[in-house]
Design brief:
The structure is a homotetramer of 224-residue chains.
Chain A (H helix, E strand, L loop, with lengths): L6 E5 L9 H16 L3 E5 L5 H5 L7 E2 L16 H6 L4 E4 L8 H13 L3 E6 L2 H9 L4 E4 L11 H4 L1 H14 L4 E4 L6 H9 L4 E4 L1 H4 L4 H9 L3
Parallel strand pairs in A: 1-2, 1-8, 3-4, 4-5, 5-6, 6-7
Chain lengths: 224, 224, 224, 224
């Protein structure tokens, strides 16, 4: 079954409902849902929370960003090596809230590979998805910025951007997996994304800010 | 004695000698030196290492940077609340490797105050030191960029910038403390900085990359 | 009379009503108003329009921004020397739409001085106004960003920020002149700004986007 | 003959030898060489010099950069419409000295198309060249940053990056033309670039800073 390879990545952003002690609690919920429903789940907490989560919870942890730098004099930057040593196994790159220069995305993917981090490059439309795919990250996550945080799922509001992104990526780089983000909240949104060819989803506010985070996650994945 | 109030802040930058497990080891050395020599010491590790150090070592931990943001949708940014909850008690701002916009420095100082973080604003010359002092951070650290990482101490190579910075700050904001950075490596450099009016020092490569970090720290503070 | 020294600077931004041929027309209107009402007026067009205006109209031309660079390899940047040779006599710096790093503002003021350009540093509140004043630009223009482009004048909505800015600047650097921006549209707004201590105003949409630009300008200055 | 379609673009950067009055002189030299040797030449002066050159010299003028913005409140930015109205017929994008975000390159190409500007996207290696090609600019100019300004031609020092870039671009987007930059100074460098498949060159210091700019240009193109 195709769905077995689905991945669900939950971006904690800088939400207070997913920070420090609460980040740990939410990661534990994700871990349980992942086991109960046999679905691959990963969490992307803030940098100061990576170690705390990775050392307590058995779930893949992604950084929200890394900088395309080497060890050295880079006060305040995010070194791939440090993120990896803190227990992350991957990183988001070029999120719509943290857009990166083209040359930096390319270099960051290379640096991530050096230290064993998987990469999820976020993009905003079909042309940038295509461009990102040529750089051979592990995942491309297409998220039309106008839908992020709205609860209006891209898979419903703009199915063509998902279908077109999958098609474009598979032509250029068949091994790059396509995730679908922006507005995904319900199981129906998720299902629709899968039907359009997405191989996973990138979530945030729909789950993190739900009254009952566990219930929101369950209703998202139980159809699988 | 004036020196009792001296503070020594060690910036770990993105050096491999002060990352992950090694960051913890170096923080422990700083803790011991601090106790043995009755000197206030603080460490500024990378963000993913803050929690690990603050929960194991009894020494003030500073972030290397925070962003002037509130909780919310800021993927990849450094939220003051998160840094504080991870155990930091302060933060560097506007380091020469991570210069900030004027409006962002002002806002970041305010946000740091909201969450109980002390602030060290780095500056590059007397005019920017003066400008930073008007924003009432806890510390201003003057570091001529051309001397950073050289081992040539600002207190020796350019005493006037230290003396002039202290004078300018005290006229504008007597409660703001002046630190001296850039090239400080030896006890003599430190002593000279104190004679010029500095109320502490900001260190990095001279200690972190020393063959024997403990010895380097001891030789720095034993004259006090 | 104090008002004789008043300066009115009109920022053309990237408005289509003040670009190319239309920029020239608007600059000519400003020139005429300036002569008829004996008031100092200056215009700040887009960079490609500086030469065209300065070589045809006898009115001070300001750039909207310069970069803190020297001649050399800086493709796409704004060199102070080039702006000056094109006929500008000054520049805005740190506009709310183009915030600059503290170290860059300081350096840009110095570079502007090197090539004979006057400087107007824009700020967003009293603390940043104070910080900017220590850097000794020719003008500081305080503009609370939440009022820019609203037609709600800062001199009416937040008189304290104008009065407080004037007081703060005069304590630190009596020779720095204080302009008042954000939402100024009518003669009454301008008058109120002067009563609060402003020594001029920085305008934009209220005039540029007026149905009749000349009439809008006349109604602004005729009370003087 | 293939060479008939060759284009030579001369980037004036922020060099004093190609600014203001001197920019005009150099553009006239390019115009003459272009006619004498029947080769397409274009110049890329600083923004304040675009109008002055385009209104006096009959040679294509490129901007060094545009911002991916629409008309409106963007003080200090480079509006595509303004550059076009000043007489430019194209623009460089993502030069190694002015790297752009991936999403901004995509948007800038679209905005350039809206106003009739041709686009030259600069890239630093084969992967970023490939990514740029998917965005369908008119030209991609591959310039390994370590060779820029050295006088060591990429076509000699690293022929594989030129050959590989041409191959990659033609597979993805056959209508995108490939330029070769970085270190090109002599006719031999140019010839070698053409043999490797380049359809033109992007030049800067080798010509602008030559003792005799005309002679340098002539020796560059006379072999054609």
């Amino acid at each position: 079954m195709r769905e077995n390879n689905m991945i669900v990545i939950l971006n904690f952003k800088c939400y207070k409902e997913a920070m420090g002690e609460k980040a740990l609690t939410l990661a534990r919920i994700c871990e349980q849902i992942s086991q109960e429903y046999s679905i691959k789940m990963a969490v992307a907490p803030q940098h100061p929370d990576i170690y705390r989560i990775s050392s307590s919870v058995d779930i893949p942890v992604y950084a929200q960003h890394i900088d395309p730098i080497e060890v050295g004099s880079h006060t305040g930057y995010v070194l791939p090596e440090c993120v990896a040593e803190a227990g992350a196994c991957g990183t988001l790159l070029n999120h719509s809230e943290k857009r990166m220069k083209l040359a930096d995305i390319e270099r960051a993917i290379e640096r991530a590979r050096d230290v064993g981090l998987k990469t999820v490059v976020c993009t905003n439309n079909i042309p940038t998805t295509k461009a990102a795919a040529t750089l051979l990250p592990d995942f491309v996550a297409v998220e039309p910025p106008e839908l992020i945080g709205t609860g209006v799922a891209v898979s419903k509001a703009n199915p063509e951007v998902v279908r077109g992104s999958v098609k474009a990526v598979k032509e250029i780089a068949p091994n790059v997996n396509v995730l679908c983000g922006a507005g995904i909240t319900t199981g129906e949104d998720f299902k629709r994304a899968v039907e359009l060819g997405a191989e996973g989803i990138l979530l945030a506010s729909g789950i993190v800010k739900a009254k009952d985070q566990r219930e929101a996650l369950e209703s998202l994945v139980k159809w699988l």
